[in-house]
Amino acid sequence: MSDRPSPYDCFTVADLLVDYADQVLLPEQAARVTAHLSQCPSCREQVNQLREVSYRLEAVEPAVPGPGLRTHFLQLLEEEKAALAAAPAARVRPLWPREATHWALRIAAGVALLLTGVALGHWGRPNPAAAVATSPAPAPTRHAVRLAAALSGEAAQRLSASDRIQLVSNAAAAAEATDAPGDPVIQALINTLNFDSNVNVRLAAAGALYRLRADPRVGEAFTQSLSIQTDPNVQILLIELLVNMRERRAAAQFEQLAQKPDALPMVRQQAEYGLGTLL
């Protein structure tokens, strides 16, 4: 019989590999992973790749995006708000019968959610912000701060899209573990959602932020981001996430997108559906 571990053995340690590569596991967990790696070439290769990404990030001095980037983004938002305020009030009317398109829209949104690893079952998770504080608020860990800086720095853009997606996942996991107010990971993920050049990375950032939606910055960020996103996959995902969060501030953006002539019909219909759900 082969001594090579079974797929189930690999599954049981999969969630520990990132922390093992960063050397932050408890001793007994680290010993368990070490024993597994001695018999599993596939998991060893994953750990080596994770360490290589970490080394490449640490070799470059992290850089913070310049103030001009944020100024430009805020200027775009103000222009969108001004255009919306000047537009006459109008009630959105369906472009196609709702029954004919509803399921297609839900399937498209579901595919986008699956691509980012978002489980809508998380919606039932208790909101940490609603709990009574019994101890001082936690501070972001050094690990989370380092990941946020790496995600915001120029070095991140020199990584492949798959490496940036892994960095997004690691940063979100670090922020989720501490749940610290003002965690810099949130702003780093928001910047990634708005400005990363790769659609899949932006989808991953949206999914990561949804996991951290207890932070009040997330709902506002989704609403503002919807006004500058042009890829239909990202637009549909943001609409779905805002609806699940019951983010009523997004209603104006939904109505504007539903009437936008250059938006895809499916995006306009999804925006109309979201508007009807929120109102």
TrEMBL record:
A Pfam match: zf-HC2
Biological process, per Gene Ontology: regulation of translation
Gene Ontology MF terms in the entry: sigma factor antagonist activity
Membrane topology per record: Single-pass membrane protein
Chain ranges of the Putative zinc-finger domain: 10-44
Principal location class: membrane
Subcellular location: Membrane
Gene3D superfamilies the UniProt entry points to: Anti-sigma factor, zinc-finger domain, Leucine-rich Repeat Variant
GO CC annotation terms, alphabetical: membrane
InterPro entries, A to Z: Anti-sigma-K/W_factor, Anti_sigma_zinc_sf, ARM-like, ARM-type_fold, Znf_put
Record key words, sorted: Membrane, Transmembrane, Transmembrane helix
Keyword Transmembrane assigned: yes
PANTHER family per the UniProt record, alphabetical: ANTI-SIGMA-K FACTOR RSKA (PTHR37461)
Name under which the protein is recorded: Putative zinc-finger domain-containing protein
